[in-house]
Amino acid sequence: MTNFSKEVMHVGEMASGAKLTVPVYRLKGSDATAPSVYIQANMHGAEVQGNAVILQMLELLKATDLKGDITLVPYANPVGCNHKNGEYTLGRFDPITGVNWNRMFHFNEAAIAPFVATHLDSNIATIEQAFSELMLADIDQLLDHNIYGLTTGQRIAYQLQRLAHQADLVLDLHTGPISSKHLYCPEYARESASYFDIPHTLLIPNDFDGALDESTFCPWWTLQEQFAKHGRSFKIKKESFTVELGSQEQIDLDVALDDAKGILSYLQYKGVINQAQYQPKEMLRYACYLKDYKAFYSPMGGMVDYLAEFGQPLPAGEPLARILRMDNYGDGDPLHYISLDHEVIPILHFASASVNQGTELYKVFSKFSLL
Amino acid sequence: MTNFSKEVMHVGEMASGAKLTVPVYRLKGSDATAPSVYIQANMHGAEVQGNAVILQMLELLKATDLKGDITLVPYANPVGCNHKNGEYTLGRFDPITGVNWNRMFHFNEAAIAPFVATHLDSNIATIEQAFSELMLADIDQLLDHNIYGLTTGQRIAYQLQRLAHQADLVLDLHTGPISSKHLYCPEYARESASYFDIPHTLLIPNDFDGALDESTFCPWWTLQEQFAKHGRSFKIKKESFTVELGSQEQIDLDVALDDAKGILSYLQYKGVINQAQYQPKEMLRYACYLKDYKAFYSPMGGMVDYLAEFGQPLPAGEPLARILRMDNYGDGDPLHYISLDHEVIPILHFASASVNQGTELYKVFSKFSLL
Amino acid sequence: MTNFSKEVMHVGEMASGAKLTVPVYRLKGSDATAPSVYIQANMHGAEVQGNAVILQMLELLKATDLKGDITLVPYANPVGCNHKNGEYTLGRFDPITGVNWNRMFHFNEAAIAPFVATHLDSNIATIEQAFSELMLADIDQLLDHNIYGLTTGQRIAYQLQRLAHQADLVLDLHTGPISSKHLYCPEYARESASYFDIPHTLLIPNDFDGALDESTFCPWWTLQEQFAKHGRSFKIKKESFTVELGSQEQIDLDVALDDAKGILSYLQYKGVINQAQYQPKEMLRYACYLKDYKAFYSPMGGMVDYLAEFGQPLPAGEPLARILRMDNYGDGDPLHYISLDHEVIPILHFASASVNQGTELYKVFSKFSLL
Amino acid sequence: MTNFSKEVMHVGEMASGAKLTVPVYRLKGSDATAPSVYIQANMHGAEVQGNAVILQMLELLKATDLKGDITLVPYANPVGCNHKNGEYTLGRFDPITGVNWNRMFHFNEAAIAPFVATHLDSNIATIEQAFSELMLADIDQLLDHNIYGLTTGQRIAYQLQRLAHQADLVLDLHTGPISSKHLYCPEYARESASYFDIPHTLLIPNDFDGALDESTFCPWWTLQEQFAKHGRSFKIKKESFTVELGSQEQIDLDVALDDAKGILSYLQYKGVINQAQYQPKEMLRYACYLKDYKAFYSPMGGMVDYLAEFGQPLPAGEPLARILRMDNYGDGDPLHYISLDHEVIPILHFASASVNQGTELYKVFSKFSLL
């Protein structure tokens, strides 16, 4: 039976002096050569289901042959988790600055070229070790040596990133607003996407936009590309995914058990665990490049009856939604139907019926293929 | 075929000078002696489904033999409707003052006794007419003659109340957060509750707490009671209900059609329309006195997996919910089950999985009977 | 030199499990017969200056001959203190329910008459002791014996009230939005108001509306009234004040030192301390009955240039403010001047230039006299 | 006497169907060769003082010899202006998406090189005309031809930008939170900065970050740079500034009159008006490069007594602020002083006393020179 240790990480403090803390669970694997794993949940306040997945993973791992180390961090963002306004949980962006909590991670691209220059002839193990240390030193530098200080979100993000840098495999558990399950996967790790029980995969390029997944795979991918420029091939061990578990503002422990098993299937594939019953489910899996993942913005203000089913190709011309505009009744059109002129797969829609002109109504795979 | 007229009512203005307006639809009945009706929707920003019900009613009424006048007001609260913070619609209370928009209506109980004293010997028609005029004059006085002014919410509420005072039957269309359908019904109108297609009825006493329904039936009920003290029996024609249509933040036009038919069933019963196909559905109907309608507050902070099914009696000891507390994993209990020691009917629960200690988790019928 | 002890009181927990705590400082006086004191600050999130006053009091009390016990509670509301949305601190009402945090205290008026009936012949000391115990038992009952639970705000309020019930003198440190200093004082304690260095006093009646001051003096005042009905005179020792220290969202440690000295002047007068240098300042002191303390609501939406000086009588017809309405430029009046037809003393105004029609612009003494 | 025309521009609609409108004032100059001007205010909801400046400009321009055309847009952001939560105006970022309203303007850098390639031999007038048309066509394309639509903020921004593109001189009137007056000025227009009555100038490079000023000068500056690469010198007529008028949440019509005169001094310098009395005031003017404009983030949570005076060099080691931490009283340090190890000029500080660890406390010129 697997044992775990538990720590409480301090990541900030509030105006009253209240400490912001994050629980960190660590499981020790039996094989130092097996990949290590970092999993966090609830970076956005309303996206809570990942916490339940972590609970179910901890329960399942009790009876699992664990090879690699696993670090699990629920409630990763203690400001976001508790950020209420009205009945709902805001927590998508810092309430003071408006910055998305998952856009504050760090990647210093300028550090890669000099590193490559000094390691052109190093062996793989040396490179991996030295590069890991560079990434960690870079974060430590930010956390500890800045007289002008860090933002609230950077302080949280960098401490999480420090943990994530120490793992080979990184999973950031999110949810959409009202959403089907989908996966953000770097293009180079496409093969791994089939081992999750998630039918929709977004293939993302090597562009850094501040998210945790990018902040942990972009350095390695860039390293690979820089070595390639020098004619040296370098296989990346690091994989980072953002796992979108479904809809926000919901906890469902039964669904969480399924989600946990899907993650264990991926960990089995990667050799983190040795437990053959965890295998991917048979399902149709679709892939879409990030550039083809389109947001559809409402062409009008109104109140929306969302019609399109998630996850299935929707033929051109079929309605995504109809928008109620009672103020038009009698002298206009009280119902407006929305459709597109090409086939799409609807992945998620806005959390509320009430939308302004320009509110993001749907996100869809506008082009897609089988994974 | 029924015709309607449409007006735009000005109810306030914002800091930029933007006008706050409310559309008002009026349908003229063929029989001046038939009861008149006032229906409004969306007094709370997130409770949008009533707007769709008004659309469906207008459509159904096109082919209906209309006896009484009907006034329909969607988007009754133009501040609340558009009050976003994050993806959700707040709009339950004034963002500046925190006051619930549906607690600002008016009832001046002190005006009743003098009225009764001067009408002890008047006939019913005279009393009804004079009392209606008194109610309207009272509202007009508030709206027009106050050098210190009115709050934003009073100005909106009083203008709506002025319309509601002019009708015999008043329906205020609301929703719960995540909720089954239920009806707030004054105790004296219990019989009417069976004509709506709503399985759960709350019987409310003659206590004024600022809501529209109370503000329109309390005066008449108090009038009746005061006449009764003088030995005169007086049957109230006025009926006011708050109709809770289900969950907030959702528009479903198909469900709205059913809801509209349920309301027409009530209007058929009251003689507002003459269209025999609108009859109440057969269903088990439960009643609960308001004092027995209990809010259950979370005994702890945490993230909630809501378990209890709405609308069905839940036996004593059966779980309402389980609360996840991942921070307790390893040194406490990560799951806490909630139950009660007596049978209840769960009616609604909180809109979010994330709750603080003391957040209202559920509202339940703690005692109930068949209607 | 005075010593103090410090505790941390748990008053709730958030969704992530984070504990809500409040620091409690206790100073022990040398004379058990001297009045005891309870002072809290920051019940509303933005009203922070009271925390600085508590700091300065603790510093001043180091060199003070202390007779009575003093309990000091800064950061009394740990949810409100940390409730940000945008740059400002909200924290005036529960973000989930909209209820004002200072309207959740408890007073069970029905308990007084039975108490009086059983103590008609008791001596004063017995009555005071027994009544204190009754108040505490009532609160303990609420906190500990309610299967349906308490709201978040009640749990905080009742725990503070439990401390306040144990003191003879209660000060609740608040601020206005943008405001002069003023004092809420029960009518019976009018004489004490002259000992604070506060030029404006509101005399409030024995009406309970949920605030801490009322929740601690209303029981005693009602007790006095009930004894009076039975022909027994009973002098109240309990005094409770809400002290409005100026404007919110500001900390000024120098002003706080003055405020602390003003409070010590009152404590010297009551015999809590024995330090003759703390005497009230000479100043013109105005009094106004609560019924004459009027809110002026903006007659229009717009952006306000506040003109009237605080604290001085403003003659009839002199402008309180002018409201900018640029959208009217060219086809209306871009500036609207606000005045009243009678003399008033402006006490506070709204925190922002931007107001809706019906926003509370000013609060004024509409009738007043010298204290 | 100058005449103006007034339009109402539709920029969006809300969930209830309410139209979002912006008033546009246009003054016609007498000289078609004089530079034209675009001035907007209140892009961020709380930054209202610019509206008053526009009022005072309109009043002053009545008696001004106007050569160039002027377009004036108060209340530029009708969502932001009216976005209240609590007493304050949020309106800095879209409440739904968290995106800063002044980061949604457009600049398509990729369009410049092809334009230059086709106009290497064109004359200046042709280039200016053709480039203006390109900029406008680009915006029109975005507004009208996008099946997936625009965000709420883009729709507002692009319509404002269309107006700004048509002017030679662009002023965007903002304010800081609690702030001294300062000016964002592109490095190439440094000379113009002396004509405003603003003592602190930030010199900004040719980097586009989404703000209106950048979106209007970056295209021209880039055009200049691209022509320079081809050996052709090209003097930019376009100048765009963000004018920070002082503190937010305040209207002061007297200060606005001064601000309006300062702007007229700049317009006199540029030949837009011919009214010699408008001359810059004598004052010490400081300049700082944007890279040296530093935000200082709070090293701890707490409540801040801001000490440093705005606008004056603060010697190394002198306190910027002291932070109160009452919870540390007795077992820590209740007051923490903040200072820097080098001289700075404090320009603005946070709007509230309550800060989290990592909240932006101050912005300062960390290196500076005379303008």
- Name the shape of chain A in a single word: globular
Give average pLDDT of chain A, whole number. Answer: 96
The description of the largest β-sheet of chain A is: 10 strands, mixed
| Broad structural category of chain A | alpha+beta
Multimerization state: homotetramer
Helix share, percent of chain A: 25-40%
Number of helices of chain A: 8
The arrangement of helices and strands of chain A along the chain is EEEHEHEEHHHEEEHEHEHEEEEEEEEE
Rg of chain A (C-alpha, Å): 22 Å
Low-confidence stretches of chain A: none
End-to-end separation of chain A in angstroms reads 36 Å
The spatial strand order of the largest sheet of chain A comes to 1-2-4-3-7-11-9-10-12-20
Please give the number of β-strands of chain A. Answer: 20
Which pair has the most extensive contact?
A: A-D, 49 and 49 residues
- Portion in beta strands of chain A: 25-35%
Q: What does this protein look like?
A:
Four copies of one chain form a homotetramer. By secondary structure, chain A is of the alpha+beta class. Helices cover 26% and strands 27% of the residues of chain A. The first copy, chain A, is built from eight helices and 20 strands. Chain A has helices at residues 49-61, 78-81, 112-118, 124-144, 152-165, 190-193, 212-229, 253-269, and strands at 4-13, 19-27, 37-41, 70-73, 84-85, 88-89, 169-176, 178-179, 182-186, 200-204, 239-247, 286-289, 293-297, 302-306, 319-324, 335-339, 345-349, 354-355, 360-365, 369-370. In chain A, the strands form four sheets. A ten-stranded mixed sheet of chain A has the order 1-2-4-3-7-11-9-10-12-20, sandwiched between helices. In chain A, strands 8-17-19-13 form a four-stranded antiparallel sheet, with no helix packed on it. In chain A, helix 1 (49-61) links the parallel strand 3 (37-41) and strand 4. In chain A, helix 1 crosses helix 8 (253-269) and helix 4 (124-144) runs antiparallel to helix 5 (152-165). Chain A is globular and about 75 Å long. The two termini of chain A are 36 Å apart. The mean pLDDT of chain A is 96. Chains in contact: A-B, A-C, A-D, B-C, B-D, C-D. At the A-D interface, helix 5, strand 13 and strand 18 of A face helix 5, strand 13 and strand 18 of D.
